[in-house]
Amino acid sequence: MGPGALMGADRPETADVVPPDPLTEHVPAMTETPSPALDETAVRQALRTVKDPEAGLNIIDLGLIYDVEIDAGKVDVKMTLTSPGCPAGGQIMGDADQAIRKLDGVQDVRIELVWDPYWTPERIDPKVRAFLGF
User: Fold this and answer.
1) pTM exceeding the 0.90 threshold for the entire prediction
2) Taking CA 45 as the corner, what is the angle to CA 134 and CA 43, rounded to the nearest 5 degrees?
3) For residues 70 and 40, is the Cβ–Cβ distance under 8 A?
4) 93, pLDDT greater than 90
C-alpha cells in the first residue's frame, strides 16, 4: 500500500457524489396507517364498544341504534333504550357520545333518544338472540 492509499488516491473519484442531507431527505413515516373514512360503518363499529351495563351486551347487538347519519363531520344518531325507565340510560348515551367523538373526522355528535319504534327483544341481533336462548 502506497502513501497515497490512506489519502484516497487509490479510490475512484468521488468529487461529484454528495451525501444525502438528513434534514431534507424524505424519511417515510414510521407506522402510520391511514385513518378509516368516517362513515356509518365506522360509527357503528365504534358503538360496538359501548355496553348496556345491565345486559352486558353492546348497544349494536342489542338493537338500540336505529339510525346513523353523517354530514360533513357531524354525526346524528337515533337510538333507544330497553325501557323508558332504564337507570343506565344516561351512562349509555354518554358512552356512545364519547365513542363516536374518538373517531377521526368527527366535528360534532348529536344523539337523539327515540321511543318509536319501541324496543323489543326481537331487535337483538339474531345470532345473539339464539345464543341467549330467545
Assistant:
1) no
2) 120
3) yes
4) yes
